[in-house]
Design brief:
The protein is α+β, with helices and mostly antiparallel strands and 176 residues long. It contains 5 helices and 8 strands, in the order E-H-E-H-H-E-E-E-H-E-H-E-E. The chain has a single domain, classed as 3-Layer(aba) Sandwich (Aminopeptidase). Helices cover 28% and strands 33% of the residues. The termini are far apart.
Length: 176
Amino acid sequence: MVYGLQFKTWLGWGAKYGCCMDRPFTIVEDDLTGAAIIELLSLHATEMSDGSPPEATHFLDLDGLRAPDITFWTIWDGDDLAGCGALRELDPSHGEVKSMRTHPDHLGRGVGRDVLARIISESRERGYQRLSLETGRAEMFAAAVHLYESEGFTPCGPFGDYPEHEFSQFMTLDLT
């Protein structure tokens, strides 16, 4: 049983397209109070801080992820937390991908792709024209960058309040 969640369920990419049905994930909007998500976000913060220069570390803490302009989802494999991701509204036509993270026990199972599909779907439902993200350039970000590229994200300049930094790279997806 999953605790502390608002159950707005969305079956992932595999269920929608009839493939990969060996991974019956469920994606739910999350209120960020459960122990499992707090632990995963703590791991995320530690790894981002350890692998990025302080001035290029842009992850949000729990309070930041609870802001009214952010929708946060968790993805579950039964009772096991498999990952998470968030969507921030920058303005009525522009969203930002935040806090994409796959639990280490679920790497390579399509968790990130399913969460990203949910974020893209929600962005389209909201009528955003563009969805952007900031990520790092180090090797630890290579799989994420590959995922974003495979979903049509392309390089762009800094957006929102992000400064240009040699460690950061910015990507965007045209939703029009």
